[in-house]
What does this fold into?
Amino acid sequence: MCPLRVSTILLRGGGTATLKDPLKARHLIDAVTGWTITAFDGTRLAAPRYLPPGYHPTDTVYQDDAGQRPLPSPFERTTTPGPAWTRFYHSDAQQPSLSITQISGKSPEEAAGTAVTVNGYPGHLDNDKNSNRAVTWSDGTYTFIIDTTGPQVTNTQPLDIAKQLS
It folds into this structure.
């Protein structure tokens, strides 16, 4: 296995840290929980082939209230979190209102909502939390969460995005 060459790390809360030297064989440790943070290989990220009209990638991070999320974030899970990556999207000049999260491994938490199928895998579509809509499923290797608070996103579009990740 090649040594990992990480130079910039996204931190909880949206900040970043730049390492003086590549990570290589060193470990990242969460100072709060003491858990080892496993780096996520960005070459394995699923890319959306469909986004709702007007949506574009953004580097800005948004945070829902904890009670509004379909699952706890990887940093809030009660078991050791697997490596995860979240990408954010916005429409026009608005704050980000759509996110796609990919977590290594199957999430131990059960998502709420109506049972759906995403490319043959069981999942849940949650349209019951105010303006928050989410699709959560696992393909056995990764757990995916498509989450939106955008009022212009229809109730079915999160599932459309999920079905067109590649």
Observations:
- Helices lie at 157-163.
- The longest helix spans residues 157-163.
- Confidence is low (pLDDT under 50) at residues 1-7.
